[in-house]
Amino acid sequence: MTAKALTTAPAVPRRPFVRRRSAIPGFALSLGVTIALLSIIVLIPMLSVGLKATQQSFPDFLDAAFNARALAAYRLSFGAAFIAAVINGVFGLVTAWALVRYEFPGKGVINALIDLPFALPTAVAGIALAALYAENGWVGSLVAPLGWKIAFTPLGVVVALTFIGLPFVVRTVEPVMRDLSADVEEAAASLGANRLDTIIRVILPALAPAWLTGFALAFARGIGEYGSVIFIAGNMPYRSEIAPLLIIIELEQYDYAGAATIAVVMLAASFLMLFVINAMQAWARKRSA
Amino acid sequence: MSPRHATEDAPWVKALILAVMALFLAFILLLPMISVFYEALRKGWEPAKAAIQNPDALAAIKLTLITAAVTVPFNAVFGVCAAWAVAKHNFPGKSFLITLIDLPFSVSPVVAGLIYVMVFGAQGWFGDWLIDHDIKIIFAIPGIILATIFVTFPFIARELIPLMQEQGVDEEEAAVSLGASGLRTFWSVTAPNIRWGLLYGVLLCNARAMGEFGAVSVVSGHIRGLTNTMPLHVEILYNEYDFVGAFAVAALLCFLAIVTLALKTLLEMAQPQSRPARH
Questions:
Q1: Which pLDDT tens digit goes with each residue over A136-189?
Q2: Could you give all domains of chain B from N- to C-terminal order, each with its CATH number?
Q3: String of b and e for B2-41 (b: at least 16 CB within 10 Å)?
């Protein structure tokens, strides 16, 4: 009986490729166009740097990827991007708080201006920041008597990356802050928590996933940034030379393998960041759900 | 004096937070923006006007407009196709596909330019073939357009995918079951629903396409009057110590950015929707 049941039972239907076939037409066409364009514009060209970097012996690859000048450039690109992301993490949170919680004159204009770094060409930001923070600039001349130099030092790189990363923390934290219901705050207050306690133990933990996502986005953007940095950095090898600039310098010297190698290292870092950001966004969604 | 609500900050906290925000935004956003116009007009209107009317500057403006005119429609078509496939259908590997679409956001603009040099440059995959057939892509306009398409590739798709996912498939299914063709369904049902989102994506894509510097810088070759876009022209003038000229062209780009932000704010008022910051 058991054997018979086994043989006559209808085979378990194999899971179809498209689980619930949508009644909406155009699937094959739209997916086909999407994958074709994605491959032609993004995936296949990106393969080319990987292949170029492997067209050299392994010791050559290691030397091109991790020689002293390249290491100094990564240190600056990653370090300055990290510091800028921290600055944006602090001030972005303050800005988002003010935009969500307070009413003040000029709020609409400030809210629109937060996105300026997305809309302003990076080269324009670069020359503007260089003019402003140079020794004879409006801000540079203020700090010059203190013996501080901002433009044409690694500090200038931090300033440029702070500009570039500014919208990320504000714009990722803002919606979560807005959705934060007043109930939990009221509950904390009615249970006797003072305002500082409420902020540290109730509000900040709720904002943490979004805040970290914004931080990571600003950091990732800063690592690869070029246009706004080169005008203010000074571009001294080993000191104020960022990794993307090193790629351009090697390209100008026709060292294609060297340029591709640094690009591969930076791509590896980007993929790692992308992975981290996706994981954090999934966490943030789970937390807010 | 009425008692303060439990979830309200003390006046001094409020004042402190507003002051910190104002200082931060002044030093990082406002002063740089003002200094662009100040430096451009430092010697009055005439030199700034002359810098913009210079033939090389006009050629750069023209090339920037051409680049945006090709890039934006291309990415709009891609964005609509990708959003249609991803948001209206279920298939395995969907989230992986979305990650791949996002990829250009996490690639350095310089690397974005470099990959096309590796494919189409003299040393690249198709280098010999292109030289034999006398086709120039790198150090020519096609390279500039390709690099710009790469860096703005996800802009419109990223805008449309969440919007179309939120709208679901009910309206389209109703249209199809009533006998509408796929194209008719798209034009009569989907298109009116996504037009504001599409416009928003087009706006951001256009701003980035006109302003892209790093990727274009790698593939352009910087030939004045021929392969110079506006941001590259700013760089050339700046490096030649023609600061008034550089800032005059920069002011034009800055003005464009302000117009973009104003239009963006209007669109957000027309269609409120929270948007992740991913550009």
A1: 999 999 988 898 899 899 999 999 999 999 999 999 999 999 888 777 788 887
A2: 46-270 (1.10.3720.10)
A3: eeeeebebeeeebeebbebbbebbebbbebbbebbbbbbe
CA–CA min distance A116, chain B (Å): 7
Set of chain A residues whose Cβ sits within 8 Å of the Cβ of B18: 98, 102, 104
Closest CA to A67 of A237, A287, A273, A213: A237
Model confidence, pTM: 0.90
Torsion of CA B196, B33, B15, A213, to 10 degrees: 50
What sign results for the dihedral spanned by CA atoms B30, A90, A92, A229? positive
Quick one: tokens of A139? Answer: 């801000």
CB A41 within 8 A of CB B150: yes
Window B:33-92, CB contacts with A under 8 Å: 33, 35-36, 39, 77-78, 81-82, 84-86, 88-92
Assigned token pair, A216: 């990571």
* ipTM of predicted complex: 0.91
Which numeric CATH code is attached to A56-288? 1.10.3720.10
Tokens coding B113 = 């330019």
